[in-house]
Amino acid sequence: MAIAVSWADENHKTILVQYERLWTWSDFAAAKRQIDGLLHSVSYTVDIISDSSQSGGLPSGNALTTLTNSFQTAPDNIGLVVVVGANPFFKSLLQILQTVSMNRAAKNIHFSKSLEEAQTLINAA
Fold first, then answer.
1. pLDDT band for position 121 (cuts 50, 70, 90)
2. What are phi and psi of 46, to 5 degrees?
3. pLDDT (tens digit per residue) in 45-64
């Protein structure tokens, strides 16, 4: 699978999403279903680390609409969403989403350069 989804810790408080170089919006939809399943499996707030450092960029298509729908249909127990290694275009799209969205999860997007920095942000929250 071009996008791997797993628990990042044994306490199930953080989900790790890792994007491979080439992924599609179909891969994204499948990963979202997995993420939502993990979120629904617990009753507490869960943070997400989305590692796009190995991604070759966004696939063609309407990224802003897809990302907006993803956040609007997300379970309520999402905490921080830390995006690791976002390229400038992807980061700009997510910043637009933060600005225009009323969704709490979209407002909780943060950016980091490494997995270690992402974990530090989550630990500090």
1. very high
2. -125, 130
3. 999 999 999 998 899 988 98
Query: Domain ranges in the chain?
Result: 3-124
pTM: 0.92
Distances 2 to 52, 63, 107 between C-alpha atoms, Å? 11, 17, 26
Phi, psi of 42 (to 5 degrees): -130, 160
What is residue 4's three-state secondary structure?
strand
Sequence-ordered alpha helix ranges (H) in the chain = 25-40, 63-72, 88-100, 104-107, 115-124
Q: What are the structure tokens assigned to 63, written together?
A: 């990224």
Return the half-sphere exposure (C-beta side, CA atoms, 13 A cut-off) of residue 87: 10
Q: Residue count of the chain, please give it.
A: 125
- 23-41 confidence digits (pLDDT tens): 999 999 999 999 999 999 9
Q: Which fold has domain 3-124?
A: Transcription Regulator spoIIAA (3.30.750)
